[in-house]
Amino acid sequence: RTGTGSGTGGDEPWTQHAEGVLAPGGPASPADGDTRAPAGVLEVDLTGVYDRLAGQDYRYGPAFQNLRRLSRLGDDLYAEVAAGAEHPAGGAGFTLDPALLDAVLHALLPGVAGVADRPMVPFSWSGVSVPAGPVDALRARLTLRKSDDTAVAVGLTLTDGAGLPVATVEELLLRPLSPDDLPVAGDRAAEGLFGLSWEPVPLDRTTAADEDRVVLGGTLDLPEARTHADLAALRRAVDDGEATPSAVLLPLEAPAGTGGLAERARAALAGVLATVREWLADERFADTRLAMVTRGAVAP
Predict the structure, then answer these.
(1) Mean predicted lDDT score pLDDT of the chain
(2) What is the pLDDT confidence band of residue 211, given thresholds at 50, 70 and 90?
(3) Cβ contacts of residue 258 below 8 Å, gap of 6+?
(4) Is the pLDDT of residue 138 over 80?
(5) Per CATH, which fold does 205-293 belong to?
(6) Distance (Å, rounded) from C-alpha 109 to C-alpha 49?
(7) What is the 3-state secondary structure (H, E, C) of 136-169?
(8) Tens digit of each residue's pLDDT (9 = 90 or more) over 31-80
(9) Is the Cβ–Cβ distance between 29 and 168 less than 8 Å?
């Protein structure tokens, strides 16, 4: 199966960025060569390696700081990577965890093992085979085939801790990246296949004034609107004889907690999803509109 990846910047012509072929693989077999470091290798000191990389604008978060051991013998690098207890690998359905694979490639970064002296990024992958399932640790042999100012080419052999094959890459080609290229890429008017647009909606103020409205929660001050703590409280009130409203307003507030932005966003989304599911399953509100009220939204 052949796949391609392309992109366009608004009215510009489409540009093909990637092309690949996917085919069934054969049964797993012993890895081509050993990933264990042989006698005579030179151990690479990894003390403070991620602090040093941060000084070169490679700022890896805790989930990606997984390079545990590195040694070199000639053109072969031997790496051991493992996920930390707080960020275990093997989740999210990945056959090969991206954080572990990325950690293997940290051995190629400037100032780590003397492979490159300038920033390099992966450009092309050739001959990739992934015969095994998820693992939480890897051993890797990286065989350098080219290393200069124009490119780095390397072959990869990945195994688990017992030496069983996990993946092989015939060749990974890396090319230089200039820091001056990054602001140019970030300044593009449109990124990706989708854009955000805001459409004005005309207001029928006469109808709105006559609506029987209910606000869930006490964070929205709306004159003449009834207030209930949540959807369950509204259901109980309707069961006790209160009139079913024509509109229900649900203010969306940032959930309480000390988690990061991503965790709080997931919690907010999960709360809204649970409310909508309850709403759609309740026939008493079939003729009632549910409106989410947000604050701080930004229009282009």
Answers:
(1) 82
(2) confident
(3) none
(4) yes
(5) Rossmann fold (3.40.50)
(6) 10
(7) CEEEEEEEEEEECCCCEEEEEEEECCCCCEEEEE
(8) 456 899 999 999 999 999 999 999 888 899 998 999 999 999 999 999 99
(9) no
Q: List the one residue out of 252, 244, 295 whose CA is nearest residue 275.
A: 252
In whole angstroms, what is the distance from residue 104 CA to residue 98 CA? 10
Name all contacts of 181-188 with Cβ < 8 Å and 24+ positions apart.
Answer: 188/9
Instruction: Provide the residue ranges of all domains of the chain, joining segments of one domain with +.
Output: 2-19+29-186, 205-293
Give the chain as a 3 state SS string.
CEEEEEECCCCCCCEEEEEEECCCCCCCCCCCCCCCCCCCCEECCCCCHHHHHHCCCCCCCHHHCCEEEEEEECCEEEEEEECCCCCCCCCCCCCCCHHHHHHHHHHHCCCCCCCCCCCEEEEEEEEEECCCCCCCEEEEEEEEEEECCCCEEEEEEEECCCCCEEEEEEEEEEEECCCCHHHHHHCCCCCCCCCCCCCCCCCCHHHHHHCCEEEECCCCCCCCCEEECCHHHHHHHHHCCCCCCCEEEEECCCCCCCCCHHHHHHHHHHHHHHHHHHHHHCHHHCCCEEEEECCCCCCC
Question: With bands split at pLDDT 50, 70 and 90, how would you rate the model's confidence at 292?
Answer: confident
Burial class, 3, CB count within 10 angstroms (exposed 0-12 / middle 13-18 / buried 19+): exposed
Assigned CATH class of 2-19+29-186: alpha beta
Return the residue matching tokens 């012509």.
13
Predicted local confidence at residue 54, as pLDDT: 92
pLDDT digits (tens, 9 = 90+) for 150-192: 999 999 999 988 888 888 999 999 999 877 766 655 555 555 5
